[in-house]
């Protein structure tokens, strides 16, 4: 069954069906990003009388700065926080700016979590990533393995900053009883992504390149060999799951939000899906001089499945079709 916005329906119980009278005010850091915009659309489609949502941009305050972060919390006095704000980027941006990824994210996370404590926020959900897991590991990776060894060298700055959120959550709980947790999504994509040709993740980057290649009647150039494997999650599915986490998940320990291991695809397969969605007549070619990054980071979604056995993810070709359509329709204003 499909929603009005075309996304596949799933079995996360609509909050409307639950008796809930507690007033909550949710502050979403990074509310203007890929995930923030998807969450906003989902919240608007399922409004709850007891919930008020505020979606922040960096223009509302630089969350690397404690004084500015405190001003934001003072102004809004949230009961709940979805902490999405981060310095984010694909493989090639991560390889270039390791120190910036480490420092900016450490600062942002520390300011946000400390403000959550100071202002008595009752629940905070922060966003980690499956790229933070150890590089040399057994598969599938699960939530218990975050700190078992060094992450892949290509993004160690980002990875160590994100790992520390899990450490902070435990320490805030043990010392102050705070209920702060985290989610671990795989690679995300969808409308409102960053489609920059150099800095973006692979799907938005290839969509933009494909758009240009189609106009020039040239093949799509895919960086690396195309053999690395990834699990991708559509931002609309992640929004539904994140909302469930905020409302219903009560552990401090993180939870992986991912499609199953059987839905892992190669970069080559993804490029072919993008070509198909774009109606490209030219094929694809590979630039083997560019990095492949991590060959795989196969994650288990068993914990998620224990909570939500019937959740249905949008099929990846449908999600890519929708994202390509959104990009073509919003070409002039899309982030690129
Ligand atoms: P995004 O599209 O790049 O958006 C980043 C958001 O963070 C924007 O709203 C931005 O605000 C805000 N931000 C950046 N620096 C800030 C600062 N100094 N102060 C305040 N706000 C700041 O990111 P996303 O892809 O939605 O990522 C959301 C979360 O998911 C992040 O925590 C990320 O690490 C995680 N994640 C992403 C992926 C992925 O594939 N994209 C995968 C796994 C996990 P402005 O736009 O207003 O500047
Ligand atoms: O999404 P992506 O940049 O990030 O994907 P990671 C990188 C993979 O796609 C590599 C190939 O195998 C690249 O060789 N690729 C092919 C391309 N063409 C392109 C292209 O035009 N652009 C990009 N970006 N890649 C990131 C981490 O890793 O995952 C971040 O570095 C973050 O920290 C994110 O957490 C979720 O999956 O390799």
From TrEMBL:
Keywords: Isomerase, NADP, Oxidoreductase. The keyword Hydrolase does not apply. Its EC number is 1.1.1.271. Pathway: Nucleotide-sugar biosynthesis; GDP-L-fucose biosynthesis via de novo pathway; GDP-L-fucose from GDP-alpha-D-mannose: step 2/2. GO terms for molecular function: GDP-L-fucose synthase activity; isomerase activity. Residues 26-256 form the NAD-dependent epimerase/dehydratase domain. It comes from the Eukaryota. PANTHER family: GDP-L-FUCOSE SYNTHASE. Catalyzes the two-step NADP-dependent conversion of GDP-4-dehydro-6-deoxy-D-mannose to GDP-fucose, involving an epimerase and a reductase reaction. HAMAP family: GDP_fucose_synth (MF_00956). Belongs to the NAD(P)-dependent epimerase/dehydratase family. Fucose synthase subfamily. This is GDP-L-fucose synthase. It comes from Geodia barretti. The lineage of its organism: Eukaryota, Metazoa, Porifera, Demospongiae, Heteroscleromorpha.
């Amino acid at each position: 069954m499909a929603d009005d916005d075309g996304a596949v329906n799933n079995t996360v119980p609509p909050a409307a069906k639950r008796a809930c009278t507690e007033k909550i005010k949710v502050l979403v850091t990074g509310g203007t990003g890929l995930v923030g915009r998807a969450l906003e659309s989902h919240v608007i489609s399922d409004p709850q009388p007891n919930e008020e949502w505020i979606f922040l941009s960096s223009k509302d305050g630089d969350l690397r700065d404690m004084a500015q972060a405190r001003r934001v919390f003072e102004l809004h006095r949230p009961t709940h926080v979805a902490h999405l704000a981060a310095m984010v980027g694909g493989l090639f941006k991560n390889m270039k700016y390791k120190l910036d990824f480490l420092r900016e994210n450490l600062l942002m996370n520390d300011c946000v979590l400390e403000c959550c404590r100071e202002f008595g926020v009752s629940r905070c959900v922060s966003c980690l990533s499956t790229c933070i897991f150890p590089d040399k590991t057994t598969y599938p990776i699960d939530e218990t393995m975050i700190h078992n060894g060094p992450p892949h060298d290509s993004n160690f700055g980002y990875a160590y900053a994100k790992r520390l959120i899990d450490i902070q959550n435990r320490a805030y709980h043990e010392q102050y009883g705070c209920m702060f947790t985290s989610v671990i999504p795989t690679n995300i994509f969808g409308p409102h992504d960053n489609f920059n040709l150099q800095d973006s993740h692979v799907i938005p980057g290839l969509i933009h390149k494909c758009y240009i290649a189609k106009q020039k009647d040239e093949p799509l150039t895919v960086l690396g060999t195309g053999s690395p494997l990834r699990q991708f999650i559509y931002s609309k599915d992640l929004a539904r799951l994140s909302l469930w986490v905020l409302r219903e998940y009560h552990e401090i320990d993180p939870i992986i939000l991912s499609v199953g291991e059987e839905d892992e695809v190669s970069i080559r397969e993804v490029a072919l899906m993008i070509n198909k969605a774009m109606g490209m007549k030219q094929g694809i070619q590979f630039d083997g001089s560019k990095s492949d990054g991590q060959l795989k980071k196969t994650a288990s979604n068993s914990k998620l499945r224990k909570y939500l056995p019937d959740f249905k993810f949008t099929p990846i070709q449908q999600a890519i079709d929708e994202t390509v359509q959104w990009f073509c329709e919003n070409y002039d204003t899309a982030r690129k």
